[in-house]
Every structure is written in C-alpha cells, then in structure tokens.
Design brief:
Layout: E1 2-4, H1 12-26, H2 34-44, E2 52-57, E3 63-70, E4 73-79, H3 88-99, E5 104-108, H4 112-120, E6 123-129, E7 140-145
Parallel strand pairs: 4-5
Antiparallel strand pairs: 1-2, 2-3, 3-4, 5-7, 6-7
Helix pairs in contact: 1-2
C-alpha cells in the first residue's frame, strides 16, 4: 500500500464508489435517501475538483481510500469498506498532517468511530454546529490538531 498525490479526473467515479462504500459502512445515522442526496451533491458541485486529493493505492495501483484537503482543513477521508481496519486511514491522515499541513477536520457527531480515530491522532473538539454544511440535522464537531497529545 502506498500514498499517491496524483488522482486523475477520470478516477473520480472510483472515488465516488469508495465514498459511498465508506459512508454506508460508517454513517448508519443517515436517514433514508440522504446518501443519494449527498452523492448527487458531490457530483453536481464537482466536489473532488475543489480539493487537493491524495489516495492510497494497493500493489495493483487500485485506489483503496482517499482524502481531500482545502487550506489547512481535511475535508474528506474515506476508505473502501472492503479495506477498513488495515491502517489506510492512519496512513492517509499522517500524509495529510505531515505533507499537506492540515490542522482541522469536521466530523459528524454521530460518527463515533471517526471521533475516536481523530482523537487518537491528536485532534480535539473545539466547537460544535447543530447542523451540517447542507443544513441537515447532523451535528458537526469542529476538531483541531493539538500537538501536545498528537501521538504521531
């Protein structure tokens, strides 16, 4: 497994499939239909083209997970459900911290696994929003990297 800073636009459909696989495996709190709403939003707004992307690739060069960064904020980190638990998320996060210099991430409050993951890697909740960026009733925790307990 290796990190690639290169993701071609032709690979965006693969990223969308990984996003959907990951969300279905981890975002059990979403209401029926919301996955499709978010998926359509990603496609219509060309979200992947608005962030700096990096991905994890296996020995066949297939993408197994990816991240997207804007400024100093990790905007997305998703792992194909078939590859969860193999350290890919940690590898991508460390790449984002060390090479892309992220210090912030927003996490759904109901995604307890993600909160634990980010806390384990030195992030601390600084504030909370009652709704997500699309105005849906999914509270968001705004987390920042605190270097004194960054366990890196």
């Amino acid at each position: 497994m290796h990190i690639s800073g290169s993701v071609q636009q032709s690979e965006y459909p693969i990223l969308l499939k990984i996003w959907e696989s990951s969300v279905k495996a981890t975002h059990h709190f979403l209401r029926d239909g919301d996955v499709e709403i978010f998926k359509n939003f990603i496609q219509e707004k060309e979200v992947f083209g608005q962030v700096t992307l990096a991905c994890a690739r296996d020995d066949k060069n297939d993408i197994t997970g990816f991240l997207g960064v804007a400024g100093n904020s990790l905007e997305m980190l998703f792992i194909d459900a078939a590859y969860r638990g193999r350290g890919i998320g940690k590898m991508l996060l460390l790449h984002a911290i060390n090479n892309l210099h992220i210090t912030k991430v927003d996490v759904n409050e109901q995604n307890e696994q993600a909160i634990i993951f980010y806390e384990r890697h030195g992030f601390k909740t600084m504030s909370r929003s009652e709704k997500d960026g699309m105005g849906k009733p999914y509270p968001i925790l705004h987390m920042e990297l605190v270097y004194d307990n960054a366990g890196l």
